[in-house]
């Protein structure tokens, strides 16, 4: 027997911990980590991390450390890429040659690369981010937030070993070096899993301006490619690539708008409010273009883009005193437009019911005139039910009640007014109200203060919530077809709840009160109206005109809060009323 000892391949987590400092190249790491994946759909980049790999905490911790360790100079990245592109792998060690073969297979499938000429080292970084996105897709937010997850990550601390600031620095640094938008999918997952632990870093780093810049660049590039002639196969491949790169944008803005107070949402969009709305209008035009929308998933994606575009507008319109007229994609207008019309109708009802007193003015001839307010309609009776004539506004109130009840059930923040605590920030399990099983509290003190809250005391809200759940069909209102997206509630389920409430004679006032309570939860504190907004993209109108073409039903529609004008009659001051 030979006395020569054959070296063994070190554990993969050890190799990743010293990546760029050992002899192993990018192709080796791509192949070696490919064994932990089960491909579900290679064309759509859908895959799962194997169950045994999900429990390999040392592997995932080393991968996160390799991505987000502090790198102070560009030369550090250049040196890392140079070392990874140069193969000095010890082929004599069992498993090394096999990993290279596997890496070549992955490369041939082009499952990771988005640019043919990119370096192998760049492909490896994309590969690592896609692995990270996949394993977080399979993790459970509540278990991680409480620090009791049996699969990786065990707690939010596993995700930020070097702190939130280094996380944001790493995300922005890598996005400048690789073309893949998957980094924004990972950013969205960090917001969901870490919550208040990372939100200040996202705000302070002005991450919104980066995602707007890269998002607009992606849209410009996608449009140029869409205009090129293609075979049917090429068109299908291009469409797959479009959705692969566009979905992280949707994931990020969805994470920004979900489960945060209005103030936090505005902070996350700071100085990019109008551009965010315009970006999703552009994205909707692209996603609905016949040259791109050729896949079965196309319609569902467009619906999601339109929903987020409308939510962005509604948020910005709520908290800015003046907004410019924004031309938007017709599908977004169809959602946001009626919402604004209902708000104006509600304002008019309130104004007319109060009977405004207007100070008389003198006309140009010095004649004093008196203003007579025509009382065109009054506010609906507090006893009005779901059969009232104003079905448009009533429908909005009903939808808001459902949305806010579901949000309160699935959010990870304390339900007490102005309490900043979340399950992520405390690492503890919170307690739900034992009666309604909806309100969530970080401790007894918050539960007591919420019970006696001056605006929405839980002692009054609680029985209302319990009754609405019962009248709506018990647990129907809390069904969750997409566990990763609790806010998603299919129309067919919503219609069941609304029909049940209508049959039970639920009053409009009850639903309006719950909708206002939900707004109270989201507000958490008074949010001051803002006066100045950023101007948006300078070439926006020209670009969407090109995207719309000459097709009538694709023409952009102007969306702006059209505050109603109260109609007055001017009459001589001496006229009797």
From TrEMBL:
Q: Which domain of life is it from?
A: Eukaryota
**Would you tell me the protein name for this molecule?**
MYND-type domain-containing protein
One matching Pfam family: zf-MYND
Please name the InterPro entries in this protein's record. Answer: Znf_MYND
According to the UniProt entry, the coiled-coil residues are none
The GO terms this record gives for MF are: zinc ion binding
UniProt source species: Hebeloma cylindrosporum
Q: Which UniProt keywords apply?
A: Metal-binding, Zinc, Zinc-finger
Q: List, for all copies, the residue spans of the domain called MYND-type.
A: 416-462
């Amino acid at each position: 027997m030979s006395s020569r000892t054959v070296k063994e391949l070190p554990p993969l987590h050890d190799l990743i911990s010293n990546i760029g400092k050992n002899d192993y190249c990018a192709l080796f790491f791509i192949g070696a980590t490919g064994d932990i994946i089960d491909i579900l759909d290679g064309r759509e980049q859908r895959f799962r991390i194997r169950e045994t790999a999900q429990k390999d905490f040392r592997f995932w911790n080393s991968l996160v450390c390799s991505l987000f360790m502090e790198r102070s100079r560009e030369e550090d990245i250049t040196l890392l890429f140079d070392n990874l592109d140069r193969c000095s792998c010890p082929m004599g060690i069992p498993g090394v040659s096999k990993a290279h073969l596997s890496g070549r297979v992955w490369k041939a499938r082009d499952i990771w690369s988005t640019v043919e000429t990119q370096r192998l080292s760049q492909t490896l970084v994309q590969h690592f981010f896609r692995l990270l996105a996949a394993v977080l897709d399979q993790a459970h937010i509540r278990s991680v937030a409480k620090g009791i997850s049996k699969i990786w990550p065990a707690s939010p601390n596993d995700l930020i070993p070097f702190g939130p600031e280094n996380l944001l620095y790493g995300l922005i640094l890598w996005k400048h070096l690789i073309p893949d938008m998957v980094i924004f999918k990972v950013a969205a997952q960090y917001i969901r899993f870490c919550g208040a632990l990372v939100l200040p870093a996202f705000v302070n780093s002005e991450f919104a301006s980066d995602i707007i810049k890269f998002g607009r660049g992606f849209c410009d590039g996608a449009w140029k490619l869409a205009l090129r002639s293609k075979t049917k196969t090429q068109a299908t491949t291009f469409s797959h690539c479009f959705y692969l790169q566009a979905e992280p944008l949707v994931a990020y803005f969805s994470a920004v708008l979900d489960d945060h107070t209005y103030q936090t949402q505005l902070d996350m969009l700071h100085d990019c409010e109008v551009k965010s709305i315009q970006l999703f209008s552009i994205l909707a035009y692209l996603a609905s273009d016949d040259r791109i929308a050729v896949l079965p998933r196309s319609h569902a994606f467009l619906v999601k883009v339109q929903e987020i575009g409308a939510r962005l507008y509604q948020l910005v319109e709520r908290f800015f005193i003046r907004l410019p007229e924004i031309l938007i994609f017709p599908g977004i207008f169809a959602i946001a437009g009626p919402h604004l019309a209902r708000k104006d109708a509600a304002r008019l009802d309130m104004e007319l019911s109060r009977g405004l007193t207007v100070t008389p003015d003198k006309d140009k001839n010095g004649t004093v005139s008196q203003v007579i307010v025509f009382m065109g309609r009054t506010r609906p009776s507090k006893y009005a039910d779901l059969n009232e004539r104003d079905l448009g506004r009533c429908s909005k109130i009903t939808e808001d009640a459902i949305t806010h009840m579901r949000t309160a059930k699935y959010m990870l923040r304390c339900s007490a007014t102005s309490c900043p605590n979340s399950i992520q920030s405390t690492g503890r399990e919170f307690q739900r109200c034992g009666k309604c099983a909806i309100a969530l509290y970080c401790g007894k003190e918050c539960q007591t203060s919420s019970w006696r809250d001056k605006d929405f005391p839980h002692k009054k809200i609680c029985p209302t919530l319990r009754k609405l759940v019962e009248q709506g069909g018990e647990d129907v209102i809390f069904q969750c077809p997409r566990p990763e997206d609790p806010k998603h509630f299919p129309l067919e389920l919503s219609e069941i709840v609304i029909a049940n409430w209508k049959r039970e004679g639920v009053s409009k006032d009850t639903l309006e009160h719950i909708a206002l309570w939900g707004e109270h939860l989201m507000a958490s504190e008074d949010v001051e109206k803002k006066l100045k907004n950023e101007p948006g993209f300078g070439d926006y109108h020209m670009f969407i005109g090109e995207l719309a073409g000459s097709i009538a039903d694709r023409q952009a529609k102007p969306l702006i809060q059209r505050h109603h004008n109260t109609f007055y009659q001017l009459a001589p001051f001496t006229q009797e009323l």
